Amino acid sequence: MTEAPDHEPVSQSNDSSTAQPTAGKQRGLIEFDRLTIAFNEQPVLKDISLTIDRGETIAVIGESGCGKTVLMKTLLGLIHPTSGRVTFDGKDLSALPPKQCADLRLRFGFVFQNAALFDSMTIFDNVAFPMRQSHRYAEDEVSSRVMEHLHQVGLPASVASKRPGELSGGMRKRVGIARAIILEPEVVVYDEPTTGLDPIMSDVINELMIGVRNRYPVTSVIVTHDMRTTRRVANRVLMLYPRTRLKKGEPQLLFDGPPADMETDPDSRVSQFVRGEAGTRLQELAG
Ligand SMILES: Nc1ncnc2c1ncn2[C@@H]1O[C@H](COP(=O)(O)OP(=O)(O)OP(=O)(O)O)[C@@H](O)[C@H]1O
């Protein structure tokens, strides 16, 4: 079991938190190096190695239970590797002292699947929350930035005084995005941003994600089942496959490339997934 306590490093036994890039080799912003995550000795992710560069927009796809959320939580330092490591800007997330880990998290924005707003706070206070938490901004700057960000996500000023329960799901999602980007984090992680929304609102969210990327050089990681989002927003797709369904020796990262190449991928598991075709799954499920 590798679920990490909120601010406690699992290990400080090496100096990898200050690892330097190999001479002459450009370092990626995020690096997964032979990452394995196991629960009760059952690996959910095994030997995942990949590099995410600054400015990339990555969609992480794959069928339910393949480990997308676990990968995302590991990236956020919420789950620590069973073996291997994840580095952000050269720092090993699981080897950092709590204060540095907390500082590093300020460089991430997170859009939760259900928006995860504080129900007792107004929309204004929800969006202001990261700015106030950072203790770096005067209240007049908080105020102008919150209103500017509500406008950016297409919400009228009148929502500022409302509470989350008074808004639609799509509006709450947009509030969640405004809150996630208000400090202009280097990385924004979106957890199933369009799930539960109608097609039009889904596309509004797609446009917002593109808009964030166009406004500043953010790196985006989108965990999604939505192939329209994947095609429209991502410039790189990572498709994971459930470990239990892999043949012996097969890599778990089934696809790593541009969205346009997915449909013609020689591996039928990739092309079937993106076309939403069940193939022989029903027979398999029936045993
Ligand atoms: N804390 C945990 N303890 C034990 N097992 C876990 C834990 N977290 C995740 N798992 C297991 O890891 C596997 C992958 O889960 P994960 O939530 O990452 O899948 P997913 O690809 O995000 O699925 P979905 O698309 O349905 O959200 C599942 O079998 C899940 O039961």
From TrEMBL:
UniProt-listed InterPro entries: AAA+_ATPase (IPR003593), ABC_transporter-like_ATP-bd (IPR003439), ABC_transporter-like_CS (IPR017871), P-loop_NTPase (IPR027417)
UniProt entry keywords in alphabetical sequence: ATP-binding, Nucleotide-binding, Transport
Transmembrane segments: none
Record-annotated ABC transporter domain positions: 30-267
UniProt KW ATP-binding keyword: yes
Region annotation (Disordered) ranges: 1-24
Pfam (any one): ABC_tran
Compositionally biased spans, kind Polar residues: 10-23
Molecular functions (GO terms): ATP binding; ATP hydrolysis activity
Coiled-coil intervals, chain numbering: none
UniProt keyword annotation of Ribonucleoprotein present: no
Source superkingdom: Bacteria
Name of this chain's protein: Putative ABC transporter ATP-binding protein
